[in-house]
Amino acid sequence: MAEHMSWRLGLLAKLTGALRQAGARMMAGTDAPIPGVVPGFSLHDELKLLVAAGLTPYEALRAATANVAEFLGQPAKKCRSDPPSRRATDRGPEA
Asked: The whole model's pTM is what?
């Protein structure tokens, strides 16, 4: 079983790399509810696998954000920088 999964993962990585080289636009997203797929955590794994398959980290993030929004017909929004007190990495005033 593990050998088959390893072979399958390698094939998917090759296909993903070939699609990237061909200029295909990709979307990331876990297909929950599938046993063993945990929403959120699985997406992090998927982003790592996309980078391992040849996408840049930027392309992987676009696959999980902007490409999905464009596919769904949502308007693109420019990113903005929040003040340091509002950043996700800030521990807040109690830190």
From this structure: 0.70
For residue range 25-57, list pLDDT tens digits in order: 999 986 667 787 777 788 888 999 999 999 999
**Which residue from 43, 45, 10, 13 is spatially nearest to 29, judged by alpha carbons?**
43
Q: Which residues contact 76 (CB under 8 A, 6 or more apart)?
A: 66, 69, 70
Q: Report how many helices (DSSP H) and strands (DSSP E) the chain contains, helices first.
A: 4, 0
Contact of 28 with 64, CB cutoff 8 Å: yes
pLDDT, position 93: 45
Q: Which residues make Cβ contacts (< 8 Å) with residue 67, sequence separation at least 6? A: 25, 26, 27
